[in-house]
Write a structure and sequence with these properties.
Blueprint lengths: L1 E6 L13 H11 L4 E6 L2 E3 L8 H4 L7 E4 L2 E4 L2 E3 L9 H17 L6 E4 L5 H12 L3 E5 L2 H4 L8 H10 L2 E4 L2 H9 L7 E3 L14 H7 L6 E5 L8 H7 L7 E5 L5 H10 L6 E5 L3 H10 L2 E4 L8 H8 L4 E4 L4 H4 L6 E4 L3 H13 L4 H8 L4 H17 L1
Parallel strand pairs: 1-2, 1-7, 2-5, 3-6, 7-8, 8-9, 9-10, 11-12, 11-14, 12-13, 14-15, 15-16
Antiparallel strand pairs: 4-5
Helix pairs in contact: 1-16, 3-4, 4-6, 8-11, 9-14, 12-15
């Protein structure tokens, strides 16, 4: 049996059930492998008293220290997070908190490897812990952990050092692998590990019926992603005045929500923009099945799961040449890769509306991304590291 300790700060709990859904799904898949035993450690950062009384942090008081989560054994230790420190102390705080906990865990679960699910702060902490317990470490890069934390002056050295020290590394796309190599991570230790999509949940439906069920008529644009400047939803709103019959649904939450709402009002399209907030996968699938196009003009990505989920629903995508975009959109019959400008996004949307791509072609692309392949590739990768 391969005994895996999964370290994941992006792991859901009762207060954040939609946090890190792809980390959760990947972990569930690996845990179900017949030759794997797995436990999860999902640290939660809290500031010192009295900042810990702030509602943002106080909500974690109801999260148990340990529990079974969808069949997984999950430990949720708290570590000291210092607001305003730009994260520079988080990895060290996690390491100190986890040393005694992992010592205790090893008495009954002698893990063979630590699998860190995000490069920061998970990665540097995993390296320190792996060295202490004498086990190899794998770290997965997902996008922002390299593009932001790997270049942030407060954390870049930690991220890059962890990348050079890990026994093995995973990247969600070839493009992200290249970005990792550019910051001096060892190319020979990086394996591309594509995400999966639930092809039973994200399916091709009758678009007219799907729209009717949601009370929608006319052209529908859906954008799935955190409402942050990097995702570029403002460029989609910019296009709406030139698409007078189209409605836009923004699925997600984030710091940009107020600004985007104000932009829609200023452009006179408020009645055609709907903010849904975060939604469960079942509801995201319903919107994607109804959509004529999913638009996400990101500045950077690893490989956006929203791209693949839309394609699985037979819905074309209009995206920028970010991260693994060209690794996913290999067929122009399934969407458009456009310039990250208002004009580029508008042209892509107009092209899709004028010449609707084949729903079958969209679905066929998504069928390359299965959770079964994801699990087998992860099992093979970790097994090889343990065997070295």
């Amino acid at each position: 049996m391969l005994r895996v300790l999964t370290l994941a700060t992006l792991f859901p709990d009762i207060t954040r059930p939609r946090l890190g859904p792809f980390v959760e799904r990947q972990t569930l898949g690996l845990a179900a492998h017949p030759d794997v035993e797995l436990q999860v450690v999902a640290p939660i950062g809290l500031p010192p008293f009295p900042l810990s009384l702030h509602p943002h942090y106080r909500r974690f008081s109801g999260v148990p220290d340990a529990e079974d989560w969808k069949g997984l054994r999950v430990q949720r230790p708290r570590f000291m997070h210092l607001p305003g420190s730009k994260g520079r102390f988080d990895a060290g705080a996690i390491t100190r908190r986890l040393m005694p906990l992992l010592t205790d865990i090893r008495r009954t679960f002698p893990f063979d490897i630590i699998d860190a699910e995000f490069f920061f702060p998970d990665g540097p902490a995993a390296i320190a812990l792996g060295g202490h317990f004498g086990v190899p470490v794998s770290i997965k890069a997902r996008g922002a952990d390299i593009h932001f934390w790997g270049h942030n002056e407060a954390t870049a050295a930690q991220v890059r050092g962890a990348g050079r020290a890990a026994a093995g590394l995973l990247a969600v796309s070839e493009a992200l692998k290249a970005d990792m190599v550019r910051i001096a991570m060892p190319e020979e230790r990086i394996t591309v590990h594509y995400t999966g999509v639930d092809l039973d949940k994200f399916t091709v439906q009758d678009r007219a019926k799907a729209k009717s069920a949601l009370g929608v008529s006319g052209p529908l644009i859906v954008s799935v992603g955190a409402l942050i400047p990097r995702k570029g939803q403002s460029l989609v709103i910019d296009a709406l005045p030139q698409l007078p019959d189209a409605h836009l649904v923004l699925i997600g939450e984030g710091e940009d929500r107020s600004r985007l709402s104000q932009q829609a009002a200023a452009m006179g399209v408020t009645d055609r923009v709907n903010f849904t907030g975060n939604l469960p996968h079942e509801e995201i699938a319903a919107w994607l099945s109804a959509a004529d196009v999913m638009a996400l003009p990101s500045a950077s990505e690893g490989l956006a799961n929203a791209w693949v989920e839309a394609l699985a629903c037979g819905t074309p995508i209009v995206i920028t040449n970010a991260g693994g975009a060209r690794e996913v959109l290999t067929d122009t019959n399934a969407g458009r890769i456009v310039d990250r400008t208002a004009g580029g996004v508008l042209a892509g949307l107009q092209s899709v509306f004028a010449h609707p791509p084949s729903r079958a072609a969209c679905r066929q692309i998504a069928e390359r991304f299965t959770w079964e392949r994801n699990t087998e590739a992860l099992f093979r990768h970790l097994s090889l590291l343990v065997g070295k």
